[in-house]
């Protein structure tokens, strides 16, 4: 180790430079993509516990017209967050989704909000402006938040959540089961809903401990007046277990993959007549 020390550091810093370079490149691509209209919003249906009626859709960002080839949000959201581009990108998703879903009467809309967007002091005002501009009723809108920022900046997070709820928007805790915090603790943020992550929900039929965790989380959430959506439902067996445990809403490939708005409209007509 000692002999290779200097060379090791050089290799390490060369790798860091390369990673930083790739990140900067991607940052430029995202900025260009926003200007050129390369991004799209897809929608994944969320159904009731019986799997019968569609109650809402989750807006999910797609980049189909990226010149260097489409990549998923897991590959570029983090770069957008680090560079601040998540602010215009997040507003693009919200505006487009409000426009697309407005006419789908009775359908609620869930939009992912990156905690990094909370760093913008005008965040709440920008949300209010999009709602006013699109005419989308705040009561039909829910924001999905991950817990990271809440833990790091509890005061700011609580203030933003309170003012969003003041507008009539609901707040869901996203990716439950991935982080470390208990829902009992997170309840003080005033969540209306928790979303059980697919990494946990996907194992309930095969892993006894995952099943106990999920059933317990649903029990606690419901007892604290929070609704529960399970993500990543792929089989009827998982759906049965979740329904029996008291889960209100189901989302996953069992029902539908995320789809473009036209296909969602067809799907609605088919299922609702
Ligand atoms: P997420 O918020 O947890 O979204 C759910 C992810 O699970 C989506 O991946 C969805 O396609 C996938 N999924 C849904 N049902 C199933 C299933 O039954 N099986 C499997 N294997 N997967 C399923 P996607 O669209 O690739 O998004 C990944 C993540 O990127 C999202 O995770 C979210 O954290 C982030 N993301 C996507 N769109 C946005 C956005 O507009 N803004 C922000 N801030 N983040 C976004
Ligand atoms: Ca989500
Ligand atoms: Ca998730
Ligand atoms: Ca997530």
UniProtKB/TrEMBL annotation:
<protein>
    <recommendedName>
        <fullName>EAL domain-containing protein</fullName>
    </recommendedName>
</protein>
<feature type="domain" description="EAL">
    <location>
        <begin position="23"/>
        <end position="272"/>
    </location>
</feature>
